[in-house]
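Morning run. Coffee first, then this:
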Amino acid sequence: MKTFQFRFVALSSVIYEGTIVSVSFPGVSGDVEIYADHAPAMFLLRPGAIKVSLSDGSQRLFCVERGLVQVLKNSVVALVNRAINSGEIDIDVLSKRSKELRELTQTQLSSKTKEKIFRRLSYLEEQSKIAKRIQAEK
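And here it is:
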C-alpha cells in the first residue's frame, strides 16, 4: 500500500511525525480521509478525532479542538491548537470539567467569554465520545 509523510503539530509540540497509509479528520465541511497521491488541498478542522493508519495495520487516534490541514505532494501537515492522544483521556476528569463549565455558563459572563466556554465544552464532549468508543472496542 502506498504511503506518505504526515506531520501533526500542536501549538507547543510535535504530536506525531512519520510515514502513514491514511489520515482521517473532522473538517468543518465534513469528515475527510487522505491517502497517498491526494490532490493539494487545505482543510479547516472542527473538534473531533484524527485517525492515523500506519503501514503495519495499526492506528493512532487523537482528539483535536481546532486547526487546519495542508496536503501537498504526498505530504500532509496538521496544525492544531490543542490535541490529546486517545489513551490519555480520562472520562471522570472530562465529566467533572464539563459540569464545571456548564455551571459557569449560567453566571453573568460576556458573550465572548461564553463563546470560549462553549468551544471548550465541544472539545471535551469530543474527547468523551472518543474515550467511550475506545472502551466499547476493548
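The mean pLDDT is 88. Good start to the day.
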